[in-house]
Amino acid sequence: MKTLDIGCGGSEDFRIHKVRGDVNCDILKPAFKIRNFVLCDAHHLPFEAGSFSKVFMYEVLEHLESPFKALKNIQYVLKRGGRLSLTTPNGLHILKIARSVKRGFYSPHQDHVAIWNLPELKILLQKVGFKEINIQYTYRDRSRKLTERFILFLCKFKELRYKLLLAEATRAYMKPNA
User: Fold this and answer.
1) One-character DSSP codes across 112-147
2) d(Cα 43, Cα 147) in Å, to the nearest integer?
3) What is the SS3 string spanning 149-170?
4) Which tens digits make up the pLDDT trace of 34-64?
5) Could you tell me if 149 and 119 are in contact, meaning their C-beta atoms sit under 8 angstroms apart?
6) Separation between Cα atoms, residue 56 and residue 132, nearest integer Å
7) For 13, phi and psi rounded to 5 degrees?
8) Which residues pair with 24 in a beta bridge?
9) What CA–CA distance (Å, rounded) separates 172 from 72?
10) Other CB atoms closer than 10 Å to residue 171's CB: what's the count?
11) How far apart are the C-alpha atoms of 171 and 177, rounded to whole Å?
């Protein structure tokens, strides 16, 4: 199985990032050695149709100007029946909401172009043409502040307790250029 990791984390800030792919790409030249590294943009992947069985895209979607175009390109490089695994911050995380209420406005991370929650992410993946979409809440917040841990403890809704969404989707059986 040949795999691709998009946004493999080539900057110095991402030394702890686990490089997952047989081929790894990012828009930044890596600050350290990454095996089989390709400098490219998720919107313009330089690979042939059906090149990969699995694509990882962790913590990238929220940075993209055109998530639809990037996901279409991913679908193009996936083999028929190939799997996409992506994560993105949960736009409904209770601590984000609490901080927004405290500040009086919502302010996403300075590098984030968009925020995603489960319904929007599922609709986007469906519009692109992915099938068998499974989205889960994952990575419970490991906050060290007592007040934040207490807020998470009181929250009864899993949709609000978890920091990330993990999506798994299968490329539909269609023509590579469709």
Assistant:
1) -S--B-HHHHHHHHHHHTEEEEEEEEEEE----SHH
2) 41
3) HHHHHHCCCHHHHEEEEEEEEE
4) 889 999 999 999 999 999 999 999 889 999 9
5) no
6) 16
7) -65, -20
8) 5, 37
9) 12
10) 26
11) 12
The answer to whether 83 and 169 have CB atoms below 8 angstroms apart is: yes
Residues 6+ apart with CB under 8 A from 52: 2, 3, 4, 23, 77, 78, 79, 82
Can you read off the two tokens belonging to residue 114? 């968009």
What the block records as the tokens of 49 is 């149709």
Domain ranges of the chain: 3-89+113-141+164-171
Does this model's pTM top 0.70? My answer is: yes
Name the residue with higher pLDDT: 128 or 160. Answer: 128
Which CATH code, of 3.40.50.300, 3.40.50.150, 3.30.70.60, 3.40.50.450, is assigned to 3-89+113-141+164-171? 3.40.50.150
Quote the tokens at residue 10: 């080539």
Q: Are strands 23-26 and 37-39 parallel, antiparallel or unpaired?
A: parallel
Residue 85 has pLDDT above 60, yes or no: yes
Sign of CA dihedral 120, 122, 126, 128: positive
